[in-house]
Amino acid sequence: MSQYLKNICCCLVFLILATANSTAQITDEDDIISQPAFAIKFIPLPLLSTTPAFQFGIEAKTFNLQGLQVEFGYVTSAVRKTNSDFDGFKLKSEYRFYKKQLNRFSNIEFVGIQHMYKAVNVEGDATIWRYNQSYQQIVPIKVKNKINSVFLVGGFAEQFSNHVFIEIAVGIGARFLNVQSSELPEDAELETDLNQSIFNPIREEGNYRFLDAFVSLKIAYYL
């Protein structure tokens, strides 16, 4: 057999083996996870928030490559020392669309839309200015923050062990904030932030709108 024919045969054998291996990866659907049928999730990052929360969630498959995720968080000031006491809750719902996976070594990728409602009640002391900022005074105050947010979300899940996945996602959207506080003297000017926020300090009651974004890390157990 000439060297030319030998080279052709080697190429044909290589192509046949590569095609068979690729087909086995694509068609062995038992080894491919494109989305969870049901998942239980723990979300650790909210514990580092300015209003820390213990947050858990579940996700269930609705249709092929689609799923609904629901989260609940309990907000409490017991997690870290603050100058005020607060508690509350938050609810999240997210509808996801998954990308079909071609092999079991790929990350699970998804996009979705998310809504969040959060209510926090704060009790503490507020610093106010009196009489055209002629002097300051510390008074007790109660504040209620209500937040509605809507996000577009994208992320991926990477398999850590047989059933455990690490999910990472980012979202961008808008936050709608309503702030209510207990009655203060008419001449009072607040020095204290009513929203417990880093980026958007609030000095008076009312409704506010902001652009918003988040990064999420979840530890998920896929069933």
List keywords for this structure.
1 helix; 9 strands; 2 domains; Porin; eight-stranded antiparallel barrel; single chain; mainly beta; 223 residues
Strand order, largest beta sheet = 1-2-3-4-5-6-7-9
CATH architecture annotation of the largest domain: Beta Barrel
Terminal CA distance reads 56 Å
- Average pLDDT confidence is 83
Range of strand content = over 45%
Number of helices: 1
| Secondary structural class | mainly beta
Count of domains: 2
Helical percentage:
10-25%
CATH domain topology of the largest domain: Porin
CATH class category of the largest domain: Mainly Beta
Q: Please give the largest β-sheet.
A: 8 strands, antiparallel, barrel
Unreliable residue stretches:
11-28
**Secondary-structure element sequence?**
HEEEEEEEEE
Please state the CA-atom Rg, rounded to the nearest Å. Answer: 26 Å
How would you characterize this protein structure?
- The protein has 223 residues and is mostly beta strands.
- The protein has two domains: 1-31; 35-222, Porin, CATH 2.40.160.
- 11% of the residues lie in helices and 57% in strands.
- It contains one helix and nine strands.
- It has an eight-stranded antiparallel β-barrel.
- A hairpin with a 7-residue loop joins strand 3 (66-76) and strand 4 (84-98).
- It is elongated and about 70 Å long.
- Residues 11-28 have low confidence and may be disordered.
